């Protein structure tokens, strides 16, 4: 093992501890946050806090050499009412996206509401739970129309390393039924970093370089121009979106595929 | 409308709404596992079935529905009641 890698294992442990402390901070702050009058203000305040926290955490990870990062066209995330779809290679994706996106809303695994640390921030931020099929589609559309920037990972969970992308239909249903424009974001890591089924301390051989690339918006009719029932539209949307992501990743990051 | 006719109409609805091959829509076919109809699709499906039988369907009537045969039985029961 190289000294650099040993350092990264230590630094990764340190970053996890800091992240946990951040969660603990929210645990103590949680009851205070619930005192903020008005649901919208409470959510906005919590999201602002979370964004700055994630931003600081990204700086920390870069600063101590756990990852390096380049971001292309981040200005495209600085609007209101965007539906942001990203692929999901790593546990860090949501950290990176929240750090880059003001007014971020997220569809989050329902299990996080049972996590002793994360339940407070996700509840105080008013994030959407993924365990209510039709309800979450309506809530997601409403969120975007209300001016939030909704972040969804169409894969529903982290990618299987080495397997191709496999999108579920939830994101397609939201886009089709809400007739929403989509801002696609490609996330590529030069090394598998915190992928599915790997403990955190098995850090990659070399320092992973993350590339976040915000693409041009897809108009509501860009992928499925034909007038068809919504259920069918969501199926075609999902297939074509997955195809588009696969092509764009191959085009921009040929070395990693 | 007898059960055979109900099956034919369900096959038609599923073909129009989701492009599911009618040959796969048998009474034993499971909506979620075999036909890939999720809870979001089910909302659309209930709307279509309401038009088919000309009655409002309560979501409860479809709670226990797993297969195409269950859908046929539920509709049949509703039309008789």
Structure commentary:
- The complex is a heterodimer of chains A (257) and B (81).
- Chain A has a single domain, classed as Glycerol-3-phosphate (1)-acyltransferase.
- By secondary structure, chain A is of the alpha/beta class.
- In chain A, 45% of the residues lie in helices and 13% in strands.
- The mean pLDDT of chain A is 90.
- Chain A is globular and about 60 Å long.
- Chain A contains seven helices and seven strands; from the N terminus they run ααββαβαβαβαββα.
- In chain A, strand 3 (104-108), helix 4 (119-124) and strand 4 form a beta-alpha-beta unit.
- Chain A has a seven-stranded mixed beta sheet, sandwiched between helices.
- Chain B is globular and about 30 Å long.
- Chain B is built from three helices and no strands.
- Chain B starts with a helix and ends with a helix.
- Chain B has 81 residues and is mainly alpha-helical.
- Chain B has one domain: Non-ribosomal Peptide Synthetase Peptidyl Carrier Protein, Chain A.
- The longest helix of chain B is centred in the N-terminal third of the chain and has 16 residues, at 3-18.
- The interface between A and B is small, with 12 and 11 residues.
Number of strands of chain A: 7
Give the overall average pLDDT of chain A. Answer: 90
How would the global form of chain A be characterised? globular
Distance between the termini of chain B: 14 Å
For the largest sheet of chain A, list the strands in their spatial order.
1-7-6-2-5-3-4
* Name of the top-level CATH class of chain A: Alpha Beta
Q: Name the overall outline of chain B.
A: globular
Strand content of chain A: 5-15%
Please name the fourth-level CATH homologous superfamily of chain B. Answer: ACP-like
Largest sheet of chain B: none
In CATH terms, what is the architecture of chain A? 3-Layer(aba) Sandwich
Number of helices of chain A: 7
Question: Which fold name fills CATH's third level, the topology of chain A?
Answer: Glycerol-3-phosphate (1)-acyltransferase
